[in-house]
Design a protein that fits this description.
By secondary structure, the chain is an alpha+beta fold. The protein has one domain: 2Fe-2S iron-sulphur cluster binding domain, sarcosine oxidase, alpha subunit, N-terminal domain (Ubiquitin-like (UB roll)), CATH 3.10.20. The chain is about 15% helix and about 30% strand. It has helices at about 35-45, 115-125; strands spanning about 5-10, 10-15, 20-25, 25-30, 50, 60, 70-75, 80, 95. The strands form 3 sheets. A 5-stranded mixed β-sheet has the order 4-3-9-7-8, covered by helices on one side. Strands 1-2 form a two-stranded antiparallel sheet. It has a two-stranded antiparallel sheet with strand order 5-6. The chain is globular.
C-alpha cells in the first residue's frame, strides 16, 4: 500500500526524484522535495502528530489543506506549525507529542499565518 500524497490540492505535485532528510521525534526520515511534513510522515505510516489541548487525545492529519489546525507540530523550535502546509527541508527537526498552544490565541495574533496565502506572504518577507 502506498501512503504517499503526490498531488497536494494547495501545494501541487511532489517531485519524487530529489530526497530530503528530516527528523521527527528524534528519528531520521526521508521525503521528497516539496513534500509537506504531513505527507512525508504519512508515507512512513505516522498518523499521530500531537495531543489535544484539553483532552490529551491523539491528533493527526484531518483536512490536509490548512483549515482545521489538527496537524500542528513544532518545527525547529517553533510551535503551532501546520504539517499539512509546511514543506520539509533538509535537516528540519519536527517534534510532536506535545500539547500545542491554541492556534487562535489573541496574544499571538499576526505572528502565525492562518492561511496558505499568509504563509507565502511571510515567506516572501524573509
Amino acid at each position: 500500500m502506498n501512503n504517499r500524497i503526490v498531488d497536494h490540492p494547495v501545494l501541487g505535485q511532489i517531485d519524487q526524484k530529489r530526497k530530503v532528510t528530516f527528523q521527527f521525534d528524534g528519528k531520521t526520515y526521508e521525503g521528497f522535495e516539496n513534500d509537506t511534513i504531513a505527507s512525508a510522515l504519512l508515507a512512513h505510516g505516522i498518523r499521530t502528530l500531537r495531543k489535544h489541548e484539553e483532552t490529551g487525545n491523539p491528533r493527526g492529519i484531518y483536512c490536509n489543506i490548512g483549515h482545521c489546525f489538527e496537524c500542528r507540530v513544532t518545527v525547529d523550535g517553533e510551535d503551532n506549525v501546520r504539517a499539512c502546509l509546511t514543506p520539509i527541508q533538509e535537516n528540519m527537526v519536527v517534534e510532536s507529542g506535545q500539547v500545542q498552544p491554541h492556534p487562535l490565541d489573541p496574544s499571538k495574533e499576526g505572528v502565525k499565518p492562518r492561511t496558505y496565502a499568509e504563509y507565502k506572504e511571510q515567506e516572501g518577507q524573509k
